[in-house]
Amino acid sequence: MTDELRTRFAPSPTGPLHTGSARTALFNWLFARSRGGNFVLRIDDTDTARSEKRYEESILHDLTWLGLTLDEAPGTEGAYGPYRQSERCALYKEATAELLSKGLAYKCYCSKERLADARAELLKAGSPPRYDRRCSGLSPSEVPTGVNPVVRFKVPAGSVAFTDAVKGDITFQGFDISDFVIEASDGSVTYNFASAIDDALMRITHVIRGDDHLSNTPGQILVLKALGHTVPEYAHLPLIVGTGGRPLSKREMSASLATLREDGFLPEAVINALARLGWAPGDEGLLSLTEMARRFDLKKLSRSPSVFDTERLGGFNRAAIAAAPAEVFLPQVEAAFPVADSAWLVRAVTVVKSDASSVKDMIDMIAPLAGNLESDSGVAELLATLGSGSGEPLKALLAEIEGISEITEESAKSVLSAVKKETGLKGRSLFMPLRVGLTGVATGIELYRVMELLGREESIKRLQAALGSVGLE
Ligand code: GLU
User: Does the beta carbon of 213 lie inside 6 Å of ligand 1?
Assistant: First the structure.
């Protein structure tokens, strides 16, 4: 036996990783890291019809993207492998055989029709629809021939009580739990059973999962006790709802990590939004995984449903973008401006990222500054809408820029104040013509930044072209 803390994330590879499962993975990771423990990835692929390799791969990719490092996982040589349930069938068979030999499980030959009828009768009488144990204790002569049985676990009388780290003390009455099937008639293991066996054999000390699994817990505890295994601690995480307590919309619910990534969210932002689903780390700002692990406490998780707030996610994303080095975004930005110089793009990203919520925002802000202003860019029309006075500041700026050797932040600022003084204009009537003349559009980053990024030659060229387009060259 080991006394090291071990948590596991046990996704079924039947679809991409969604927000709720990613939160489960994160909390398991945080708890393990907060206590110097190990974090295990187990692939729950007992449902062979729905499990697909590509989903296992994408889940692994998403966990890596989020920064959730794995200590043991399929493909690693950890001490408690294999880590795919489909590769552990012999272990489940052994456990079933042991329960059968001890009389703690039995084979059931009842047909589907019989089970359905018995169930309907019990429900009609207002009783819990438990299996009536007709096949428990069949004598050899009563065993029907030609029927493949299922194996049922014999639920003992009494209650099952445990203290959930999130929900507190919980008691289930044994009477309410039917003798559940642990092996199907085709010999395959059922999920609930396999999962309990694996938690024990993998020495998992804490099972942290969504509260949709709460009803599986008493059965799993009973199986573990019947086999003489240590029962892990359980922590069932509350449901995730949308803002205002409404159920998550279809779009939010299906927000897979891949979608969030494609929408331009950074892993740091996603991690921070996920962490707030049921946990308040005591700091509203963007926290690193290490900092979160330092603060994490299973006992401080909320019992009420957690609100997935997409606006908050956006806020975290802006903060994460502002904090990240410009180089992080270069591959995507370079793809949008294939002919632009990389060093120039790094400078441009550095300037625009503090105002951006996504890489797309950055690209939109850089576009008017990259390359040539098309002659049909609409500068003339825009300038015309600004009135006849727009030529004066343009001329003044051109003369000022021609008078300096290089545009720096400092020289750009002093050139602009000189133009202001010279023309007596200020605010919109000063800056709008200059902006339109320099960029062809009416909105964007601050003007001195525009000039810095364009540089002296390009600024001159654009101002001359703008003046030309309104016949003022
Ligand atoms: N495989 C289960 C799921 O994807 C998780 C089971 C568990 O955590 O015990 O929902």
Answer: yes
Q: How far is the CA of 208 from the centre of ligand 1 (A)?
A: 10
Domains and CATH numbers, the chain: 88-237 (3.40.50.620), 257-324 (1.10.1160.10), 328-469 (1.10.10.350)
Instruction: Record the pTM.
Output: 0.84
**3-class secondary structure for 264-288?**
CCCHHHHHHHHHCCCCCCCCCCCCC
Could you report the per-residue pLDDT of 77-115, keeping only the tens digit for each?
Answer: 788 999 999 999 999 999 999 999 999 999 999 999 999
Task: Give the dihedral sign, CA 273/279/283/289.
Answer: negative
User: Is pLDDT at 216 greater than 60 in this prediction?
Assistant: yes
Catalytic residue among 225, 250, 420, 421: 250
Task: Look up 250 and say whether it is catalytic.
Answer: yes
pLDDT tens track for 352-378: 999 898 888 899 999 999 977 665 567
Ligand 1 atom closest to 209 (CA): 8
Cα 83 to ligand 1 centre (Å): 14
The finding on whether 12 has its CB within 6 A of some atom of ligand 1 is: yes
Ligand 1 atom, smallest distance to 14 CA: 4
